[in-house]
Structure formats: structure tokens, C-alpha cells
Specification:
266 residues; alpha+beta; five-stranded mixed beta sheet; two-stranded antiparallel ribbon; 7 strands; 20% strand; globular; binds adenosine-5'-diphosphate; EC 2.7.13.3; membrane
Length: 266
Amino acid sequence: ILALLSIVFLVLSSLLGYYMASRAMEPIMRSFARQREFVADASHELRTPLSVIQSSLEVLESENREGLSDFSRQLIVDLKDEVRMMTGLVGHLLTLARADSGVLQLRKETFDLAILSHQLARTFQTLLAKQAQLFELEVPDTLTVYADAERIKQLLYILLENASKYTPAGGRITLEVSEERKGKEHRVRLAVRDTGIGIAPEQQARIFDRFYRVDKVRSRRIGGTGLGLAIAEWIVQAHEGSIELESELGKGSTFTVFLPSNRKTG
Ligand code: ADP
């Protein structure tokens, strides 16, 4: 009887402990949720004034081209850069706040990843040519996947844009898309390879952290938000995939994403 009583006592006390702990956590969880909502609302509200400033600067620039001093013209160019940077930051904050609160849902569809890669390559080729960087695309003729096409595009965009930003002129950027078999499952492999500045081993785990940037001074000059890879990681995890990084300082980096293609062999 004594043993039974002590078991009952133990069960009851652990249940009570669990109940008390979850009650104590409630206000903390509520405050986290409020904070996420606040970030999402603030980012959303900032988008309109930013686009007003952006278009006003464009009007100012085009209408007063002759009347402006060199100094004022340069000021407008700098302001436009800052506004572009802030618009990117606000967009990234909104995405992450929505992802955190579970509002952001994947919209999966069946699409051809090869077509999407060619589209992206066309956009990037002009950008990379401007920076004297070579671009290579290695994709099969066709590769059907079931995923959120917009998010996959965003993911590749982030990785390609980074590859370009952190690779000096004359460097090479490669996008490889392929399908691998793992047991009975197929998985898609997306790799973005660059011959850029590379990332030191001790920094590699941290670059996926929000707002983490390796070299603050250089990063500020290059432009960016420090949120791109955090979003990339969210997109990969939401698809139940994984992302890996291989990098050597001064040699380059390869970001490899594995996604379940959701196509089973018969
Ligand atoms: P950012 O907007 O700064 O590019 P990210 O979250 O996309 O933010 O990347 C975080 C940091 O990781 C960057 O600031 C940069 O220091 C480093 N990084 C990302 N991609 C590369 C790359 N391909 N080569 C070298 N460093 C990179």
C-alpha cells in the first residue's frame, strides 16, 4: 500500500509540476506571440511609406536632372540605395515574422524545376555579366517536383545573390540541379557554387543566424540584411529538406540543398 501511495503521489506531483510549469509559460508564450505580431505589423506598415519615398526620389531625379547640383544628384542616388536596402530588410522581416507565427504556409504545386532554373539563370546572367562574373547552369532537361515554386525561387535567388555578392569580378558561379535516389525515395539536389571569398570554419554555423554577417564593415558596403540565409533555412525546413555548406576561405563556397521530390518509384 505504501509503495502504491508513493507511486500515486509521484504521478500526482509530476502532473501538478507539469501543470504549474505550463501555466507559468503561458504569459511568456503570449508575449512572444505579441512580439512576433508587432514585428509583422510594423514591417507591413513600413512598406507603403518606403515605396512612396522610393517613387518620390525617382520623380525628383528625373524632373530636376538639369537643376540639381552634382552633390544633390549623388545624395539622391545614395538615398535610393538606402531605401532599396530598407525595403529588402522590411520584406525579409515580414517573411520571418509570418514564418514564426505559422501564418506563412507553403503553396505546393507540381512544376518543372528545370524551367524555373532557366528563368532564374536568365535574370542572373545579365546581373553577373555586369560584374564580370561567369555563370554556369547544370540542369537536366526536365525535373518535375512537388513544392512551393515561389519559395524555391526565393531560396535560389538568395543563394545566387549571395554567391555573386561575395565573389570578386572574374569569379565563377554555378547552379547545379539534379535528382538523386535515396532508397525508394527520390530527392532533389540544388547546389550553388562560387569561387568567392569563402567562409571560415568557425563562422560557418553562425551565418544562418538572423542578422549575423561575417564582416560587418565589408557587408555594409556590399549591402544586404543578414536575414537572407535565415529565410533560406526556413524555406528548406518547411519543405522537410536540409541545407549544407562547404567552404574554404579564399577559395569559395558551395551551398547544397536537398529536398524530397515527393515522387516515389513504382
Ligand atoms: P546578407 O544579407 O548579409 O548577405 P545572409 O543571411 O544572406 O545575409 O548571409 C549572412 C552572411 O553570410 C553574409 O553577410 C556573409 O558574411 C556570409 N555569406 C553568405 N553567403 C556567402 C557566400 N556565398 N560567400 C561568402 N560569404 C557568404
